[in-house]
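User: Quick sanity check before I run a bigger batch. Here is a single chain. Can you write out its predicted 3D structure?
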Amino acid sequence: MLPSDHAQAILVGRLLLDAGPTPVVVRDGSVFDVSRAAATVSDLLEVDPASLRGEAICATEALGTRDGPRLLAPVDLQVIKACGVTFALSAIERVIEERARGDSARAAEVRGDLEAKVGSGIRSVVPGSDEAMRLKAALIDAGMWSQYLEVAIGPDAEVFTKAPVLSTVGWGADIGIRSDSDWNNPEPEVVLVADSAGKPRGAMLGNDVNLRDFEGRSALLLGKAKDNNASTALGPFIRIFDQNFSMDDVRSAVVNLEIEGPEGYRLTGTNRMSEISRDPEELIRQTLSEHQYPDGFALFLGTLFAPVQDRDHPGRGFTHKEGDVVRISTPKLGSLVNRVTTSKAAAPWEYGIRDLMRNLAERGLLAQPAFA
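Assistant: Done. Predicted structure follows.
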């Protein structure tokens, strides 16, 4: 679960304790309750988490065990934002979904036709550059232009709101796929977490599940494809940027994906952040260009993973089954593990902002924070 060098890391997260959801800091082999100094993770990221002592809860060895505390998604009041089509390969796959009208049976044919016409040009072009505009003109002339290519190589990134505040799930929880989707896949991603000033404070792993049939039918179905019960997994912890972990580690991260199906099926994939077409700090800048986030925000950076390996039927590619275990990992951030179910079958989202505020008030944690 933890980073391979966790002894040198400062990790921030949330645990469900008897008293309620609790911000914690993991350091020196122990987990510390810091709620008396910072009632929420949003508060915690306004200060240096390493400076808060807190009360020891357990050793790190207890995390993820049957008798250990339950891990929640490591954000609370932050808005959950996401960037799409930030990798060339994912851009091509989105165009395939669009041209196949969400029909997985047509995907292989469309893929071959598109790659024959586009080739490798889109993989090396800098979004918004003169070269990108020339490629755009050539694709329009060839009748191959798409709204997905617009955000892949045009000046403006795709940035959307992925999930409501407090609706995300953490390590070990079920992750939900719409029950009426029959072509979907996980999206293993690195997620940046910014404070109220928009400054990136750290990073974590995330699974921004993708319903290829819904979004392929129409990009206007993005909200229905992306924002469903239990459809966003984050964790296991936010790793804070410091002398041992920087944005360059995000840029060079290799994110591994493993899927183990209940029938013995296995799929692996790799998301190399070095292949991203827009720098993470540029994506942060575009997110902030016309908006403010007084409680901070989390930002999915996108994925190049779009599985084409057949699962059941030749030519239909991959889609999830209930019971799939999805493991997303990278050495500097640890591993995020979730089991797939449907959004209808997943535990309903019932704990909202009012519940959190009432809980914090009952615990006497809503006084002026210690760092103010």
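The two ends are 33 Å apart (CA to CA).

User: Great, the batch can go ahead then.
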